[in-house]
C-alpha cells in the first residue's frame, strides 16, 4: 500500500475529518441527477430517431452508431474514456507520494497509448470494417478456442477497470457526503445502466461529451480558485510551500528528498508500471475498439490523436496542482486533517484531490468535487457496460447460442448484458472493499491482469504471421508469468503474501512488466516453431454487419424527414461503408497515425522527462511557475476542444435535427388548421340543408 509518514503526534486517527456535505446531497447527486441525465439522454435518443433516422432498435445503430461519429465527438469520447475518477484521484495520489514527477508519469502513461490506438483502429477499419468487437476479429482469424481465451482476458480487463473506478469514486463520495460506501457502490451504475439500456453507444458518446465538458469547467475553476486563497496567493508562494514540505518530510528516493524533482525512484517506478498497465487497459478494452468502429473512417485518426494529446493536461496539471497545495498546506489550520498529515488509508483511498477541493473552496469545492467524481465514474462506466454487453450479445449469444439472431434478439441480449454487468461490477467492488482492497491497491496491481494480451492482440491485427498456437498460448503463459513474479516478489521483498505486500509498488512493477513483455518472446518462439501466414482478405469473407434498415421499415414522418435531409442512419452507414473502398486514403491515415504515435511516445517518455531525470534537476521557482502555467493553458485548451469542437464538427447534423423539428412543428400546425377548418365547414353544413355529401365537404376543404 501507499506509505505515508505518521502525524506529528504519532496518531493517524487523532483528527477525524467530518464530511462537508450531508448524505442527502450525496443521494441527490448519485440518484436524482443520475436519473435526470438518463432521462435527458433517452429523450435525445428518441429525437434523433425521429429526425435523422438513428434507430436504436437496430443493432448497427445501437452498437456502432452506424459507423458515422464525427471527429469532434470521437475526440471528446476518447478524452472521456480515460477521464476516470481514478485518473484525477490517482494522479493526485502519486503526486502526494512521489512529488512533482508522479502526475507527469501518470499522464505520460496514458496519452501515448491512446494515440497508438489510432494505429489499431485504422488497421481494423481497413481490414475488417464490419466488426463490432475485438473478439470477432480474434474468432475469425484464430477460431473458437482463441475466441474464448481472449473473451476471458477482455472481461477480466473490463471488470478490474470498473472495480478500480468504483472503489475510488465511492470512497471519495463517502468522504464528501458521509454516504455509506456500499450504497454509493451500488447506486452509481443505476443511471448509467438506464441510458445505456435505451440509447446504446450513441447515448454513451453524447453523455461522454456532456459529462467531460462539465468536469473540465469545474477543473478550470479549481485552477483559478487555488490561487485566490491567501494561504496560496501566487505561484511563487506555492513553490515555497512545497519546498518547505520537502524539508519537513523528505521523500525517500527523490533527489535531496525534494518533491520538486523528476529524479524520483518512486516516480519512475510508477511511470513504468503505469504505461505498461495502460497499454493493457486500452488494447484489451473492447470499448476502445467499439468507439473506433463507431467513428467514421476519416474521424478515427484525428479523433484519437487530438483526444490523446488533449487528455494529457488533465492528470498532469490537476494532479500537480492538487498535490502541491495539499503538501504545502497540510500544516495549516485550513487543511481538513490539521494538525496531522493525511493517513496512509486516506491517501490510498484517493482523498488527496477531495481534500484539495475542500481546502481551496470549502463546501463549494466539495460540491464541485462530488459532481466531478460522479460524472467521471458514470461516463467511463457507460463505455465499460456497453463493451461487456456487446461481448455477451455478439460473442456469446450470436456466436454460440443463436447464430441467426436478428436485431430484436441481439438488442434483447445487449439489454440483459447492461443490467447484468452493472449489478455484477457493483457486487465485485463490494467484495474487494470488504477484504480491504482500495484504489491504491488496484491502481498499482491491475497491470498484472490487463497486460498479457498486449502483444498477442497487436500481432493479431498488424502481423499476419502470428500462429494460432502463439495467439492462444502466449497470453496465458504471460499472465501466469506475471502473477508468479508479482506474488514471488511480494514474498521475497516483504516476507509474506498479503494484501499489504502485494499492493506495494515494487512487486507490482515487476509483475506488470513480466506480464506485459513475457508474451512477446512466447509468441515469437511458438510462431517460429509452427509458422502460419494469414490472408487479410479472409476477414472480408464473413459478413458481420446486420442488414441495414430499409425505407419501408420507417414510419411516414421519418420517410418525409429523410427525403428532405441526407443524414438518416441508413445513408450515413452507406457513406461510411463506401469510404472504406478508398484503401490508399486509409493507408495514408494509417501512416499518419503511426507517425503521431511514435512522436507522442518519444516526446512524453524520452525527450521531455529523461534529461530532467538524468540531470538530477530540482525545480527553481521560475521553472515551477512555468511548469504550472503551461499545464493550466493546456487544460483550458482541452476545455475548448472537448466543449466546442464537437458542436462545430457536428453542426450539420445539429442543423438537420433543428430543421426536422421545425418541419414537424409546422406540419402539426398545418394539420391542426386543416382539422379546425374541416370542423367549421362541417358545422356550417349541419346548419344548412344537411344534403351535402362527405365528398363535397372534402372538395371544399381542398
UniProtKB/TrEMBL annotation:
Q: Would you name any one GO CC term?
A: plasma membrane
**One Pfam family, short name:** SSF
* Entry-linked CDD domains: SLC5sbd_DUR3
| Gene3D superfamilies per record | Sodium/glucose cotransporter
Q: What residue spans carry the Low complexity bias annotation? A: 676-695
- Where is it mostly found? membrane
Keywords (alphabetical) are:
Membrane, Transmembrane, Transmembrane helix
Compartments where found: Membrane
Residue ranges for the region (Disordered) are 672-702
A single MF term (Gene Ontology): urea transmembrane transporter activity
The UniProt entry lists membrane topology as: Multi-pass membrane protein
The UniProt transmembrane annotation reads 24-44, 65-84, 104-124, 145-167, 173-197, 209-229, 304-329, 381-401, 413-435, 441-463, 470-492, 504-529, 589-610, 622-645
What is the similarity comment for this entry? Belongs to the sodium:solute symporter (SSF) (TC 2.A.21) family.
State what protein this is by name. Answer: Sodium:solute symporter family-domain-containing protein
What's the source species for this entry? Rhypophila decipiens
Supply the source organism's classification: Eukaryota, Fungi, Dikarya, Ascomycota, Pezizomycotina
Amino acid at each position: 500500500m501507499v506509505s505515508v509518514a505518521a502525524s506529528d503526534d504519532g496518531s493517524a486517527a487523532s483528527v477525524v475529518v467530518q464530511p462537508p456535505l450531508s448524505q442527502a446531497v450525496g443521494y441527490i447527486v448519485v440518484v436524482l441527477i443520475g436519473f435526470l441525465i438518463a432521462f435527458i439522454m433517452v429523450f435525445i435518443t428518441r429525437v434523433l430517431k425521429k429526425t435523422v433516422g438513428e434507430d436504436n432498435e437496430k443493432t448497427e445503430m445501437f452498437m456502432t452508431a452506424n459507423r458515422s461519429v464525427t471527429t469532434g465527438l470521437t475526440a471528446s469520447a476518447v478524452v472521456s474514456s480515460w477521464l476516470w475518477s481514478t485518473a484525477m484521484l490517482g494522479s493526485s495520489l502519486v503526486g502526494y507520494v512521489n512529488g512533482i514527477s508522479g502526475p507527469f508519469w501518470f499522464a505520460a502513461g496514458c496519452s501515448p497509448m491512446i494515440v497508438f490506438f489510432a494505429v489499431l483502429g485504422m488497421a481494423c477499419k481497413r481490414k475488417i470494417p464490419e466488426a463490432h468487437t475485438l473478439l470477432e476479429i480474434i474468432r475469425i482469424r484464430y477460431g473458437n478456442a482463441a475466441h474464448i481465451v481472449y473473451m476471458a482476458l477482455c472481461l477480466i480487463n473490463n471488470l478490474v477497470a470498473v472495480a478500480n473506478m468504483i472503489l475510488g469514486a465511492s470512497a471519495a463520495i463517502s468522504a464528501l457526503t458521509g454516504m455509506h460506501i456500499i450504497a454509493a457502490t451500488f447506486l452509481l451504475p443505476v443511471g448509467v445502466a438506464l441510458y445505456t439500456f435505451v440509447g446504446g453507444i450513441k447515448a454513451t458518446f453524447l453523455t461522454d461529451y456532456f459529462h467531460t465538458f462539465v468536469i473540465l469547467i469545474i477543473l478550470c475553476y479549481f485552477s483559478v480558485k487555488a490561487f485566490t486563497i491567501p494561504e496560496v496567493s501566487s505561484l511563487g508562494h506555492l513553490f515555497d510551500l512545497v519546498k518547505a514540505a520537502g524539508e519537513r518530510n523528505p521523500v525517500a528516493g527523490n533527489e535531496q528528498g525534494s518533491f520538486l524533482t523528476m529524479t524520483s525512484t518512486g516516480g519512475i517506478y510508477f511511470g513504468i508500471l503505469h504505461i505498461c498497465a495502460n497499454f493493457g487497459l486500452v488494447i484489451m478494452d473492447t470499448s476502445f475498439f467499439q468507439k473506433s468502429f463507431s467513428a467514421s473512417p476519416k474521424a478515427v485518426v484525428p479523433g484519437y490523436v487530438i483526444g490523446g494529446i488533449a487528455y494529457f493536461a488533465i492528470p498532469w496539471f490537476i494532479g500537480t496542482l492538487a498535490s502541491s497545495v495539499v503538501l504545502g498546506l497540510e500544516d495549516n489550520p485550513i487543511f481538513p486533517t490539521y494538525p496531522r498529515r493525511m493517513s496512509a488509508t486516506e491517501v490510498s483511498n484517493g482523498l488527496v484531490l477531495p481534500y484539495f477541493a475542500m481546502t481551496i473552496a470549502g463546501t463549494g469545492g466539495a460540491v464541485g468535487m462530488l459532481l466531478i467524481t460522479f460524472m467521471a465514474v458514470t461516463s467511463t462506466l457507460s463505455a465499460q457496460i456497453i463493451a461487456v454487453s456487446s461481448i455477451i450479445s455478439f460473442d456469446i449469444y450470436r456466436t454460440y447460442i443463436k447464430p441467426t439472431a436478428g436485431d430484436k434478439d441481439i438488442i434483447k441480449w445487449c439489454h440483459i448484458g447492461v443490467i447484468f454487468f452493472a449489478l455484477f461490477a457493483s457486487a465485485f467492488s463490494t467484495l474487494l472493499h470488504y477484504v480491504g482492497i482500495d484504489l491504491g491497491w488496484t491502481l498499482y496491481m491491475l497491470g498484472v491482469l490487463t497486460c498479457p494480451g498486449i502483444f498477442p492482440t497487436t500481432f493479431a491485427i498488424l502481423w499476419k504471421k502470428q500462429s494460432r498456437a502463439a495467439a492462444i498460448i502466449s497470453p496465458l503463459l504471460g499472465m501466469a508469468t506475471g502473477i508468479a513474479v508479482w506474488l514471488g516478489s511480494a514474498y521475497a521483498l516483504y516476507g509474506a503474501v498479503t494484501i499489504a505486500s502485494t499492493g506495494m509498488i515494487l512487486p507490482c512493477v515487476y509483475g506488470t512488466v513480466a506480464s506485459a513483455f513475457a508474451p512477446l518472446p512466447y509468441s515469437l518462439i511458438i510462431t517460429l516453431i509452427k509458422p502460419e501466414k494469414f490472408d487479410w482478405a479472409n476477414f472480408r469473407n464473413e459478413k458481420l454487419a446486420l442488414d441495414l434498415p430499409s425505407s419501408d421499415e420507417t414510419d411516414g414522418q421519418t420517410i418525409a424527414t429523410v427525403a428532405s435531409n441526407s443524414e438518416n442512419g441508413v445513408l450515413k452507414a452507406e457513406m461510411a461503408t463506401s469510404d472504406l473502398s478508398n484503401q490508399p486514403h486509409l493507408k495514408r491515415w494509417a501512416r499518419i497515425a503511426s507517425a503521431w504515435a511514435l512522436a507522442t511516445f518519444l516526446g512524453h517518455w524520452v525527450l521531455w522527462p529523461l534529461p530532467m531525470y538524468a540531470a538530477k534537476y530540482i525545480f527553481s521557482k521560475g521553472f515551477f511557475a512555468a511548469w504550472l502555467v503551461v499545464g493550466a493553458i493546456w487544460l483550458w485548451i482541452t476545455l475548448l476542444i472537448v466543449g466546442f469542437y464537437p458542436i462545430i464538427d457536428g453542426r450539420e447534423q445539429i442543423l438537420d435535427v433543428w430543421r426536422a423539428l421545425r418541419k414537424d412543428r409546422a406540419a402539426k400546425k398545418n394539420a391542426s388548421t386543416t382539422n379546425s377548418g374541416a370542423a367549421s365547414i362541417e358545422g356550417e353544413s349541419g346548419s344548412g340543408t344537411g344534403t351535402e355529401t362527405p365528398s363535397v365537404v372534402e372538395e371544399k376543404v381542398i
